[in-house]
Amino acid sequence: MAARSTGALRDAGLSALVALGIFGVMVGLHTSEGEHGLYLEFKPIAAGVLVALVFFGRLLMVTLRERDRREAYREKRRFAEALTRAGVYVAPVLLAFAVLLPFTGDRFYLDLGVLVMTYVMLGWGLNIVVGLAGLLDLGYVAFYAVGAYSYALLSTTPIHIPGFTIEVFGLVIESVGFTFQLGFWTCLPLSGMLAACWGIMLGFPVLRLRGDYLAIVTLAFGEIIRIVITNWVSLTNGPNGISNIPRPTLFGLSFVGGDGPGTFAGFFGLEPSPTYRVVFLYYLIFGLALLTNWVTLRLRRLPLGRAWEALREDEIACRSLGINITVTKLTAFAIGAMFGGFAGAFFATRQAFISPESFTFIESAIVLSIVVLGGMGSQLGTALAALVMIGGLEMLRYGLAVLGEVSQNETFQAIANELPLFRMLIFGLALVIMMVLRPRGLVSGRTPTVALGESREIAAELVAQGRG
Amino acid sequence: MDAETPAPLLAVRDLTMRFGGLRAVDTLSFIANRGDITAVIGPNGAGKTTVFNCITGFYRPTSGALVLTHAEGAQFSLERLPGHRIAARAKVARTFQNIRLFAGMTVLENLLVAQHNALMRHTGLGIGAVLGLSGYPRAERAAVATARAWLDRIGLISRADDPAGALPYGAQRRLEIARAMCIEPVMLCLDEPAAGLNPRESEELNHLLLDIRAGGCSILLIEHDMGVVMRISDHIVVLDHGKKIADGTPEQIRNDSAVIAAYLGEGDEGEEPAEAAE
Description:
The structure holds two protein chains of two kinds.
Chain A: H1 2-26, E1 29-34, E2 37-42, H2 44-65, H3 69-100, H4 107-132, H5 141-156, E3 159-161, E4 164-168, E5 171-175, E6 178-180, H6 184-206, H7 211-231, H8 233-236, H9 264-268, H10 274-300, H11 303-313, H12 315-320, H13 325-351, H14 361-374, H15 379-407, H16 410-418, H17 423-437
Antiparallel strand pairs in A: 1-2, 3-6, 4-5
Chain B: E1 10-19, E2 22-32, E3 37-41, H1 48-55, E4 63-69, E5 75-77, H2 83-88, E6 92-94, H3 107-114, H4 116-120, H5 127-131, H6 136-154, H7 169-181, E7 187-191, H8 199-214, E8 218-222, H9 226-232, E9 235-240, E10 243-248, H10 250-254, H11 257-264
Helix pairs in contact in B: 3-7, 6-7
């Protein structure tokens, strides 16, 4: 016992020494501007506090870890089993929660719900490419952008059919020219299809690439799309973006324009309120996300989905079994891209304004981290990760703001105001911590797609992550 | 070969495979007859796996012809077919020297993936099956029945729902053979199937292979285990330094002086050329 605590003390002491080396210089010395130029200010207390924190933190960590390892392993095992059992209830609870959310009627939660749902959908779409087929895609935002711009351009450009006169066997058919605009429900599938086309276009050049090389090319593809959108001013209006994108309608009923004829409020004789529109948008993205989920779950149980997973496991074996790898990879890219396109069309109609700024690399990174954090290939994990990463952060900010207001405390208010600036820092930190604790994501196991007897979860250690 | 006799299952003619300056296979010709177990043997580095990779489409031969003839007369030039077509159309299946199962998928799933092309035909371009319209469930039940029959034959039925990566080594070997058989091949190419098996497993493997041959599938075999080769082969081709040095029945090969020299004589053994193409 004594030897063990001495060891722990020595370990903590060493860590403190390293901390002293780092913080002594970085925190302990501070250059300040005085009357005679810069001078060096010493801050021994700040550095001391940090070193002490490291010392005690390390001590605590080592002591905790020194518990019987076998017991710890068994505990971990029990915990994992409990988690799996609890997992059965998590999905229905989440679903019920998502269905009931609009009934709170709170605009803040609704907007947040729409945001989270968008990322859930993007995560599920990317999960097909990254999680199932094992193709690392760093440019997923490209399809999101293609979908958004497809919708924006299709819905704002009037289509003119010129009038014509034809004479067939003496019978004169005459038609007057007319102009019409495509509505949301026509443009939505078109946007998805266009995005899928771009998915295939990206797929072709990267068919032979794997891993890092694939990642780099997809990254470049994402940037190419954004730069083209920025510079093709005559089509996309460049950096100024496209505004006045039509709002979606429900069976022809619009959600803008008070309670006039043809509006939702007017038709049902309701008090006009902007909440209806947000509720509608919420259920719209919820439905789209569920569609993504449903299609993915169905495909997993079909030969195509199994081929994707087999591709992730071993491409060469796939080829030896007569599976056409080109087609399999391209369908993964195309279907993943299609759902990205749907999400993009939704984004455009929700914002009513889009510009290239919304489609930067950071969006791809966020969606990819959601997929990785959730556990590649796991639908539930992806939803949880999106909820935590997007919703959790926003809730934290909101909570702090409320707390700041209530307490009249300037520090809280300042933190609440600045938190968004540290969003990526928190994001990165969460990723690092997660990857240390659960290297294969929140929900790491794989559920078999078919079973003779009882279906058992497959441990993550056996499941390949794909090499691109 | 005169026009009267039916074409053999596989005719390899003047096959040459060059890697830079190295001739891994040098103007090799041999014939594998329908219904036979043909073994390709030779010291390490003789070019056996390269021949296999050429036949199964993982390498494109530098020159030469590989003609596969189905019983009903359809002919395939394997040297020109893209890799996956060789399995899908020409019905040549293979296993790998270092087992390549889908480790994270269950034993049953492995066998279903192998029936990919047969199942795909019933999915109605995918869309039908997603919507639940086409006759896919029936096709899948049939595929599961096929898989179940193979699992019974290789004695793995009780482990059908376990991940393939969790099986013991010998079972993985058997599963890989069953998986290859699920594409309903006319020729099964086995790359050292007995490597790492104990004598009892090796004996089981012999029975399995004879059983497969009895079922109408011809076998092309690379093997170092002479016990397996001599007992079950109908025809043996011996390679050394990429060239054929002997060709005949096990009895003939056993007494061939060139073979004895290659195995026991001047031991100029290099490394096995690269395995399956990456």
